[in-house]
Task: inverse folding
């Protein structure tokens, strides 16, 4: 069963047909070639697939592609504008917060939502905001530093 | 993931007729944070997934209303944890529910997971269940045969089982507003801080007249509510030995199992410890 879906991804409108059992993550990666969001645990534990859906951080592996019909999605690919990195991306580079890099797109999208809802978070608030994102390299300190730095830069 | 058909009804009538047609071969999708995991694992293999998000009668918000002559907050079936936690009225009158909803999954999960879904899944460890029990929450159910209201303490009948019959859905959950002062607190033990299921969870509510209620989760086939009217527990001057002996009577009906999150013995021991702690916090907040 194929179902027509129209959605906006990173500001661009897309109309396509999807299987009912395909996830939003599959739509992004396999149909739109936006491979920043990653599939890892596929059960909402690791956060590697985090994207913004109507401005809210969600696990795109836990959402059916058809659920995104008529909605607005932002992925890591949508953050840099006119060749300029998002302040979060710059901060992650400056603070050396990226090790293997696999978790980083999800980390940054979760951080993006955190700063949108709480522009000046404390360290415990950053840790709570990123509690749904796992880093197998264990690089949490620098990731938290980077989010704090980005919040400061935006001030 | 195994393939299935998908429907997104716009009205309650269409929803109920789909449910009636497909019966147990249909699964309802609200937030999907539990459903998707079980779909992918093959734990459930529905013929059709019915999305609730476009059913207009199922609201995504919280309204103040009256129910059976008592003012209450009505939480629509599509209300997600994030919106519940942020609602000023819920924060003021149901702080223990806010604490409980605030530890469900992660930020990403709370942005999708609904309160009604948490209850309909009927997990023995559902974090919001103990709070809904002590606050006397009521499920408003709509079905082909009409509407009915079921108190939360009668709603869950066992692991994964509820009183919902074929072609019935929760339309909203009522939280009766307090008629006087009270103090309540939520407690929980997990192996790690984020994104974990509770080893045990509980809620305590104390009223000035001495009425003390506890609700416990993950220590039996379903969350359960117990009550002490002796005033012994609510009185901060009760000697610890007398308090503990009363607490032990209340938790005697817990029947925890041993699993990967903890042994039966550990859970029984922690029930007493956590009961003391949540009781102390609830009394402080009175």
Result:
């Amino acid at each position: 069963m194929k179902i027509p879906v129209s959605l906006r991804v990173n500001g661009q409108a897309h109309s396509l047909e999807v299987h009912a059992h395909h996830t939003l993550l599959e739509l992004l990666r396999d149909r739109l070639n936006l491979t920043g969001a990653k599939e890892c645990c596929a059960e909402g534990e690791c956060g590697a697939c985090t994207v913004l859906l109507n401005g809210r951080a969600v696990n795109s592996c836990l959402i059916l592609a058809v659920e995104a019909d008529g909605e607005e999605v932002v992925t890591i690919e949508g953050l840099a504008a006119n060749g300029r990195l998002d302040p979060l991306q710059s901060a992650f580079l400056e603070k050396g917060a990226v090790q293997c890099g696999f978790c980083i797109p999800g980390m940054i999208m979760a951080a993006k939502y955190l700063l949108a809802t709480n522009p000046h978070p404390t360290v415990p608030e950053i840790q709570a905001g990123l509690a749904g994102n796992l880093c197998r390299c264990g690089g949490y300190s620098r990731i938290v530093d980077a989010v704090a730095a980005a919040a400061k830069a935006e001030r | 993931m195994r393939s299935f058909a998908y429907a997104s009804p716009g009205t309650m009538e269409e929803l109920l007729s789909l449910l009636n047609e497909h019966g147990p071969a249909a699964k309802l999708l609200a937030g999907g944070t539990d459903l998707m995991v079980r779909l992918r694992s093959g734990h459930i293999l529905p013929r059709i997934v019915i999305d609730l998000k476009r059913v207009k009668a199922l609201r995504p918000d919280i309204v103040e209303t009256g129910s059976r002559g008592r003012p209450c907050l009505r939480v629509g079936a599509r209300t997600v944890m994030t919106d519940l936690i942020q609602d000023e009225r819920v924060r003021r009158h149901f702080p223990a529910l806010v604490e409980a909803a605030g530890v469900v999954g992660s930020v990403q999960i709370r942005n999708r997971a609904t309160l009604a879904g948490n209850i309909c899944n009927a997990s023995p460890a559902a974090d919001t269940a103990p709070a809904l029990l002590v606050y006397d929450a009521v499920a408003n159910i709509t079905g082909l045969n009409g509407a009915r209201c079921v108190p939360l303490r009668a709603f869950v009948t066992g692991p994964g089982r509820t009183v919902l019959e074929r072609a019935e859905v929760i339309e909203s959950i009522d939280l009766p507003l307090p008629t006087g002062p009270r103090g309540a607190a939520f407690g929980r033990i997990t192996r790690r801080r984020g994104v974990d299921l509770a080893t045990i969870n509980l809620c305590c509510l104390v009223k000035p007249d001495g009425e003390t209620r506890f609700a416990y989760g993950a220590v039996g086939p379903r969350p359960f509510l117990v009550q002490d009217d002796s005033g012994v527990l609510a009185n901060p001057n009760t000697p610890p030995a007398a308090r503990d002996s009363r607490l032990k009577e209340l938790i005697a009906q817990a029947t925890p199992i041993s699993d990967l999150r903890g042994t039966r013995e550990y859970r029984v021991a922690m029930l007493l410890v956590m009961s003391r702690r949540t009781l102390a916090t609830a009394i402080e907040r009175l």
